[in-house]
Amino acid sequence: QVQLVESGGGLVQPGGSLRLSCAASGFSFSSYAMSWYRQAPGKEREWVTTITNIGASTSYAESVRGRFTISRDNAKNTVYLQMNSLRPEDTAVYYCNTRFQREYWGQGTQVTVSS
Questions:
Q1: pLDDT category of residue 101 using cuts at 50, 70 and 90
Q2: 20 to 30 A Cα–Cα from 20, which one of 43, 84, 106, 108?
Q3: Cα–Cα distance between 110 and 61 in angstroms, integer?
Q4: Helix, strand, coil shares of the chain as percentages rounded to 5?
């Protein structure tokens, strides 16, 4: 079955960096785009970024463009989210996502940006 397992979250000070990972299994990883979403307390889940199946194209929400970078390693069935210049408003649970036939989600990893 499809599994998406996020890791790498934690507590970081404003201006700091974190790198999230999402290990995928149970499907042909290199055939599908991958995305990251996030959900802050009391808010709806929002799209953050997407990378195409072979990584040729990426897109970002305006709120993270220039600070976050999505990448993937199809040999390792893993997608990454490098987050730099983190702000308190980036605090959220971050979810890995893919979509074929239906949407699949990981369990999420907590990112807290606070001094």
A1: confident
A2: 43
A3: 19
A4: 5, 55, 40
